[in-house]
Hints:
The protein is α/β, with parallel strands linked by helices. It has 14 helices and 12 strands.
Amino acid sequence: MKVYLDHNASTPLHPDVLAAMLPYLSERFGNPSSVHGWGREARQALEAARQAVARALGATDQASIVFTGSGTEADNLALRGVLEAQRERGRHLIVSAVEHHAVLHTAEHLARQGWEVTRLRVDSGGLLDPDDVRRAIRADTILVSLMHSNNETGVLFPIREAARVCRERGVLFHTDAIQSFGKLPVDVEALDVDLLSISGHKIRGPKGIGALYIRHGTKMLPLLTGGWQERSRRGGTENVAGAVGLARAAELMREGLEETGGRMAELRDRLESGLLVAIPEVRRNGHPTVRLPQTSSLAFPGTEAESLILALDLCGIGVSSGAACSSGSPEASHVLTAMGLPHDRVQGSVRFSLGRETTGEEIDCVLETLPPIVERMRRASGWRPGRERGEE
């Protein structure tokens, strides 16, 4: 049996999404900037997609949606675009220590360009205190960027509370909702954010398309300069087929969102409880309840995550050790390290992320397959129970 439990990395393309995209990959090939019939047809599809994405995000103005080439580009546009446009007001940016690298590496680049960056800490459960946001804001703070949910642990941040703090202090607020969109209700008005990033391939849409919500009146400069596309906020001919696919995926993910989330949470809990019983000293990483309904980060002390992943892959089971873009990196997870977890636990941590297609039979397959793999690896490494706690 093939079991795919890496939906936080990417999701399978929904058949309805592919069907919606196909005409714009074939006979409806016009450039949406052209004024003739082929161009107008493409423009109409693009604007209909923009309206659908705005509706899925609870945005009242479809013009607030800018299509990008990825979630990473959306994050970059939010940070670089806002800071460059408002550098006369200050040069201070606030992020958390557990952000996706699309934000953290961008913040590091900005720091090398002279911006001051504050990285907020999280506790051992991966939670962030909104009061830390309040304390970190300075007179020269321009932007706060905090993820809605963590891509490795699924832990949720108090976005509404943090956004309220920023609103009170006149500071712009961006949230990376790339992992939460499609798994939880995401409403820009309810969250009260100024900017919000999403990505197509996380919600059974296509790769190569993302979007950034920009609240009306937010000053920013384009990341990509060129033509007047996307109301001069993102130069380059628009990916019409990708936008249509993202829009259709956004419409589909709204159907039965609460029911689907409940079902995935049940399967996730079944996976966790089964592994906690079958394998000694398994540890859950992150808060047990304040998290996405389908994400589980578990530590298997006495093993190496990469070896576990490869062993499971040989059995037809796909999981990961964290963000897909970090695969192959020799560095330990920056998320788990920032949570203060011991090295042995960080090195042996695996992420299981379920999807709408995940079945109980697939969970049972993992429960049957994984325990003997862990036992074999621990025996080979000479690991003994209690080592993580310093016991003999």
